[in-house]
C-alpha cells in the first residue's frame, strides 16, 4: 500500500503534466494569434461602382469619407492590422479617419498610396495614375524603370504626382481644400475647348464631336454643375460663333452656319 509521500508525489506529477499541457496549448494559441496578425487577412470586403455621369458619396465603417467620381470602381477591404482600397478605374476622393495602428493604403495600378489620416484624391485611367494631396501627408510608392525598383515620394498639401506613359511628373503650389469635382462642379479657367471636352466626356453618356478642329483652341471659363452640364452646350452659341446640334446619342459642335 503506497504511503502518503508517494501519493503526494503522484498527485504532483499529474498536476505538473496538466500544467505542461496548458502551457503548450497557450503557447500554440499565442503562435496562432501571432500568425494571424502577421498574415493580416481581410475579414470584410466591399465594392462600389458608378456609371458614367454618376457620383456617389460613401461613409466607410471606420469613419472615413469617400467620394467616387463618374465611371469608377473601387474595392475596400478591412483587415486586422490595416485598411486597404484598390481603385480599379476612375477617380476617388478620400478623407481618411486617423488610426495609427491600422494604416490606410490605396492601390491604383502600379502606384500605392500609404496614409494615416489625410485628404487626397487619386485617379486612374489604365496604367496612368494621378495623386493629389489636400491635407496631411501621404507616401506614394512607384516602380522606377523596373517593377522591382520601387521609389517612395512624400507629398505635402498642394502637391501632386502624375504617372503617364511610364513617366513620373511632380507638381506643387496647387490649391488646397476639396477638389471641384468632389463638390459636384467643373471649373474652367481659360482652358481650351478641347481640354474642357475631355473633362465633360467623363460625365456625359453621349458621344461629343468637335466637327471643326479650329474650334479646339477657343477658351472656356466658368463654373458648371456636373448634374447640369447641358447648360454649357446651351451657352456655347451665345458666346462664340458655333452651333450645337443633338443627333440621337451624339452632340455635334461646329461653326455657325457650317
UniProtKB/TrEMBL annotation:
This is FecR family protein. It comes from Paracandidimonas soli. Pfam families: FecR (PF04773). Gene3D superfamilies: 2.60.120.1440, 3.55.50.30. Residues 47-138 form the FecR protein domain. GO terms for molecular function: sigma factor antagonist activity. InterPro entries: FecR, Ferrdict_sens_TM.
